[in-house]
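Request:
Um, any thoughts?
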Amino acid sequence: MPWDTQNPFIFCAYHGDKYPGGNENLGPNVSLAGRAIGQDFSGKDGWSMYHGHTVPGFPAHPHRGFETVTIVTKGLVDHTDSVGGGGRFGNGDVQWLTAGKGVLHAEMFPLLNKEENQFELFQIWLNLPRKSKMVAPHYKMLWKEEIPEVILETTEGAKTTINIVAGEYQGKKALAPNPDSWAADSNNEVQIWTVKMEPYAEMEIPAAQEGINRGVYYYQGDTLAIEQQDINVQQIIALNPEENVTLKNGEKPSEFLFLQGRPINEPVVQYGPFVMNSQEEIHQAMMDYQRTQFGGWPWSSADHVHPKEAGRFAEYGDGRREEK
């Protein structure tokens, strides 16, 4: 499910799948007959293969001119890229990838459990300003154990849990974003939070500066009151940046994504996976990709997955490795 976003964000995709058990190839252990394999967004039986043929996910594809922030709340993602990076992350981890001048990467969803495999992912596209669109590709992991969390509690004991992917809340600051990110400058007031509210929980979003864009993406629950106005699930609500905003949850648990940032006041020209400032730059991106494949593909297949026994890890193009 794609969501429209406000500048400086370009796009947000939400994937919620209830996959069956996995087979020896880490794909679904059921028949794929009747699916448009390679282009399956059907949601048939509660899940999709997307562009995957054996394992669900998105085989090697290019990006230029922006960043992807991938939040995986349930399940796992196997990452590989054209600069030699790879890893497995999920169940609360976040990957921050600056595509910059160009990167080819794959995001596959290995099904490790023999029974049901729950999966939930947000991918947020955050634009880069002109000065940063052609920087070298760079990615880092924000591991779930290190992502700051704030827990609020009403006098009746109803809790709100805020995971701070970018920005800050009540004095707790997120881990540093990538160095060339629009979010790296605090004056841009970029905030990315995932929020879970228990029944009848409450929270307040503090005011920001004039001209900041901000919105709530309400994806799980029943009703949520924003400044005493009830909204229903699957709604996107733009907020006034210059006012404190009070949220009160209804009788069922609610979950939402909060995005905020100063708009990048430059032309935005998008063609598929390329986001630049002019049509000429888009044309150049296409020519560069056709000519160089943004460094080529060092992996054995476009839909590479890591061994089943691998844990959560990240490998970088410079040879560094992290394990969790």
Summary: The chain has a mean pLDDT of 97. The chain has two domains: 2-35+46-145+294-298, 149-261.
